[in-house]
């Protein structure tokens, strides 16, 4: 990808994540980035294409980081904790109206995000649960297909401003509580002992 195009994508993403999508016009974006609208339109035909490109980039980065986490984690619990830390780091300060804006005004970009969630994330969590059961760190009576779907479905509630109004409820706080609840409910006695050793 062209270096300038990638730079615009990354910087535009930061602006949208901070302020939301719908409220930021292309004029606002150009002003925030310190470039002309003409420069943005050189790489993207319209705001819709720009938003889609950002979501595609975010999904690819997410995949790469999660796969690296898998490789560098000692076991299933370690992997889930490390992935959760990454999620908090990258989404912790995101204005939750971003997801509302995506769903309502940018259905094509929202569809990309949903596919990523229900294919890659679902598969990754299901694999994690299977691995944890094999390692005797998770309870052997878990159904990986059901638990992984519950995990992915619960992320919708986290991003729902009707359930967790922003900024009263910060994403990182709600997500951390959800992960703590999930891991605590999945671990076996051996897994619980492992958790106690984690600072």
Alpha-beta content class: mainly alpha
Broad CATH class: Mainly Alpha
Largest sheet: none
The number of strands is: 0
CATH topology: Tetracycline Repressor, domain 2
- The figure for the number of domains is 1
Average pLDDT level: 91
Give helix % range: over 70%
Unreliable runs: none
- What is the level-2 CATH architecture name? Orthogonal Bundle
What best-fitting shape do the alpha-carbon axes yield? elongated
Reading the helices and strands in chain order gives HHHHHHHHHH
Strand content: under 5%
Number of helices: 10
CATH homologous superfamily (4th level) name: Tetracycline Repressor, domain 2
- CA-to-CA gap between the ends? 41 Å
> Using only CA atoms, what is the Rg?
19 Å
């Amino acid at each position: 990808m062209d270096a300038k195009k990638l730079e615009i994508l990354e910087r535009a993403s930061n602006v949208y994540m901070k302020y939301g999508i719908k409220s930021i016009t292309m004029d606002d974006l150009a002003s925030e980035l310190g470039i002309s609208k003409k420069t943005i339109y050189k790489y993207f035909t319209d705001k819709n294409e720009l938003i889609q490109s950002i979501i595609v980039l975010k999904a690819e980065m997410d995949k790469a980081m999660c796969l690296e986490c898998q490789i560098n984690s000692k076991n299933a619990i370690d992997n889930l904790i490390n992935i959760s830390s990454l999620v908090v780091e990258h989404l912790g300060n995101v204005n939750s109206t971003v997801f509302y804006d995506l769903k309502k005004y940018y259905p094509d970009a929202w569809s990309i995000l949903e596919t990523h969630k229900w294919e890659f994330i679902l598969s990754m969590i299901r694999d994690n649960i299977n691995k944890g059961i094999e390692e005797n760190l998770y309870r052997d009576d878990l159904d990986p297909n059901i638990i992984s779907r519950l995990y992915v479905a619960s992320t919708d509630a986290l991003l729902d401003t009707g359930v967790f109004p922003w900024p009263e409820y910060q994403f990182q706080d709600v997500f951390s509580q959800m992960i703590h609840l999930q891991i605590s409910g999945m671990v076996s006695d051996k897994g619980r002992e492992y958790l106690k050793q984690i600072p």
